Write a sequence for this structure.
């Protein structure tokens, strides 16, 4: 069997290079003819991915689902070009995530797209449910944008479970600058539901943890 750690390392290395490429593309003022040539080169590069293509519902072999690593998550995945990626740690008061967004994540010039903040909070708040043993899906997310989130600024995200009622979980979250944690840039309240076993099996047929 292939060494899983070696593959995860390779996935992360590729992700890092793609992320860097995305940032370069978002910032470049390279002449137009070079852009045209580069598009062809990227197309040729894509043609080199000759291995089997994973089915839609197939869990990547490098992942641990539903309680862990998601290598291609657009929020936390080290293999994702789109992910900052968010680094998560568990604390006494819930989960803390760290990342900095790039120009490729921009909404207003110089500031993060609001959808990025919402996505990162949604993900972290979902992880907060899983950390309580209840892997869950978002049913409602209320996001309040109090200050714009500068790109290239180290950020701290927080998520804390505030209530559990059967399979329904309420979670609060925030985004703050790492060097000024009193200033709330974005605040969120979310409601999550841990799907029952039958629902989870039908939603995630590729997840071994939910099968008999
Ligand atoms: C696990 C993977 C980890 C995934 C890994 C976690 C990390 C990633 C986190 C990312 C988070 C996401 O983006 S998740 C993606 C965005 N979210 C979604 O796509 C979810 C779409 N919604 C659904 O598919 C469904 O609503 C489910 C699966 C969440 C729940 O279905 P179910 O299991 O059949 O639950 P059901 O019996 O119907 O309902 C249980 C209780 O919740 C209430 N309820 C259910 N859905 C809703 C709703 N949309 N709005 C209001 N209330 C609702 C019901 O009234 C009921 O209350 P009562 O009668 O008991 O009072």
């Amino acid at each position: 069997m292939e060494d899983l750690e070696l593959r995860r390392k390779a996935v992360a290395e590729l992700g890092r290079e793609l992320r860097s490429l995305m940032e370069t593309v978002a910032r470049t003022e390279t002449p137009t003819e070079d852009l045209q040539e580069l598009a062809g080169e990227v197309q040729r590069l894509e043609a080199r991915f000759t291995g089997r293509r994973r089915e839609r519902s197939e869990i990547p072999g490098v992942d641990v689902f539903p309680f862990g690593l998601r290598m291609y998550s657009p929020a936390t995945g080290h293999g994702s070009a789109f992910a900052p990626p968010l680094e998560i740690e568990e604390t006494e008061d819930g989960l803390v995530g760290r990342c900095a967004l790039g120009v490729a994540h921009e909404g207003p010039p110089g500031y993060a797209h609001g959808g990025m903040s919402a996505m990162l909070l949604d993900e972290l708040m979902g992880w907060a449910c899983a950390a309580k043993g209840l892997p869950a899906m978002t049913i409602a997310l209320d996001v309040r944008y109090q200050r714009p989130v500068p790109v290239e600024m180290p950020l701290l995200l927080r998520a804390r479970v505030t209530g559990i009622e059967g399979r329904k979980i309420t979670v609060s979250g925030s985004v703050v600058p790492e060097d000024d944690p009193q200033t709330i840039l974005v605040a969120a309240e979310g409601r999550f539901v841990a799907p029952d076993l039958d629902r989870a099996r039908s939603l995630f047929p590729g997840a071994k943890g939910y099968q008999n």
Remarks:
- The longest strand covers residues 155-165.
- The chain has four helices and six strands.
